[in-house]
Task: inverse folding
């Protein structure tokens, strides 16, 4: 069975549209698992039915931790199942998802599979991810432009906006690092499991439409706080120390400049920097002359 897992944060109307696009695409057996990260959003329960399960997180635990709740529920029910992690602000493309089981059955070596993602305008938003550790470069690149007939193309990472997981490839339930509240958790997920020998790919056979930042743009300060912290955490884990330090000081300079022209974004970036510095003894020591720790950098 195919299990769609999505994380709700005051997105009932969007998820309703997503479910409708799933229903319109195929008659195959499926279930939708909604992890509710907004406990006061009782409207989400109007979507509960035989094919839709709602799991309560109790609070906003972030995207990765929310996905973990959904993944664990599916794994307990069906450890050989296929999970499609999918954003609330998406709808399935014209290509039907009924080919998912056959696609993974024909390519059993693949553990994690991304799809093509388009913006509502038709602009290509994602078709593959590349990572260059020596440069700390996390890149989105159209890897499918010359491989339109392939079932999939291997890549370094795929977006969590639309990410298929073949649970049968894992000896235990795969999980996201809950330290990533939002942003870069998909990259970390792919790189951790690639290091264990799992194959990550992106397929031209499936597509969906995504409205980027339609949810996160409603909370600008939090968006830049989480993206800044998660980015630095990722540089720390996967790039040389010199890259981390260079990006850290560049982010500090950029945030200080933005404080004069875009103070809300600057507050978010500085809050993310403070959070990261508090959790990194090495960086805390390097920045101590600047006193850029704790609430000293946060002027919200």
Result:
């Amino acid at each position: 069975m195919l299990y769609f897992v999505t994380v709700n944060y005051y997105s009932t109307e969007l998820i309703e549209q997503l479910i409708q696009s799933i229903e319109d695409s195929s008659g195959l057996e499926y279930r939708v698992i909604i992890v509710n990260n907004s406990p006061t959003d009782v409207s989400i329960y109007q979507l509960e039915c035989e094919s839709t399960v709602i799991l309560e997180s109790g609070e906003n635990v972030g995207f990765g931790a929310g996905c973990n709740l959904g993944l664990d529920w599916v794994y307990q029910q069906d450890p050989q199942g296929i999970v499609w992690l999918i954003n609330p602000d998406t709808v399935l493309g014209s290509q039907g998802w009924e080919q998912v089981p056959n696609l993974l059955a024909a390519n059993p070596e693949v553990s994690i599979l991304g799809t093509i993602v388009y913006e509502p305008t038709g602009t290509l938003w994602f078709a593959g991810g590349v990572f260059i550790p020596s440069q700390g470069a996390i890149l989105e690149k159209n890897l499918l432009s010359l491989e339109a007939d392939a079932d999939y193309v291997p890549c370094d990472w795929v977006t969590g906006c639309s990410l298929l997981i073949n649970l049968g490839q894992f000896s235990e339930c795969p999980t996201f690092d809950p330290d990533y509240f939002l942003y870069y958790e998909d990259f970390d997920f792919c790189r951790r499991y690639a290091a264990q020998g799992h194959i990550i790919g992106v397929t031209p056979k499936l597509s969906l439409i995504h409205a980027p930042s339609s949810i996160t743009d409603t909370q600008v300060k939090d968006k830049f706080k989480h993206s800044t912290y998660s980015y630095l955490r990722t540089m720390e884990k996967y790039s040389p120390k010199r890259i981390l330090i260079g990006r850290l000081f560049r982010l500090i300079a950029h945030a200080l400049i933005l404080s004069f022209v875009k103070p809300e974004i600057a507050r978010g970036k500085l809050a993310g920097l403070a959070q990261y510095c508090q959790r990194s003894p090495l960086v805390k020591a390097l920045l101590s002359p600047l006193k850029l720790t704790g609430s000293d950098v946060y002027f919200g």
Remarks:
- Confidence is low (pLDDT under 50) at residues 293-300.
- Residues 25 and 274 are 45 Å apart (CA to CA).
- The helical segments are 12-25, 63-77, 100-106, 185-195, 220-238, 241-261, 263-279, 281-287.
